[in-house]
Amino acid sequence: MAEVDLADIAGAVLIDAAREAAANAYAPYSRFAVGAALLLDDGTIIPGTNMENASYGLSLCAETVALAAANTAGRLRDVVAIGIVGGRKTRGGLDGSDPVRPCGRCRQMLNEAAQIGGRDIIVHCASGDGGAIERHLLSELLPHAFGPADLDLH
Q1: What 3-state DSSP class applies to 46?
Q2: Which of 52, 63, 112, 134 is catalytic?
Q3: Res 113 pLDDT > 50
Q4: Phi-psi region for residue 74, left (φ > 0), alpha (ψ -120 to 50) or beta?
Q5: pTM for the structure as a whole
Q6: Which fold has domain 6-95+105-122?
Q7: Structural domain boundaries of the chain?
């Protein structure tokens, strides 16, 4: 019998949780809401949403918010997958037909969790309208990544 991969089975659940989180996005300037949902190795799901700021550089991405919550719980090394959904906020939810992928900063933040956890993270990306979904390995989205393994800490 083939081994079942929890991260793949949970893709639809993560996308739903990310969509739910996006409903709480604080995005008054761009009106572009993003939700993220991390899957931990025990099945726990940790959501995050983007949070803009009038001083644009201080804005936080949904993926980073979710990772910070996982870290606060002492679970950063337990991340196995993430679901990401985003699009323009409308009265009915989100609009947009292109999958939303993590920005470079978020890819680097995810890489930190991946390296300390000793695994590649599965990244499920979905469009705001729900019509497009992609599945990637983080190592595909951020090849030749720099991380803890590159620092000589001994």
Answers
A1: strand
A2: 63
A3: yes
A4: left
A5: 0.92
A6: Cytidine Deaminase; domain 2 (3.40.140)
A7: 6-95+105-122
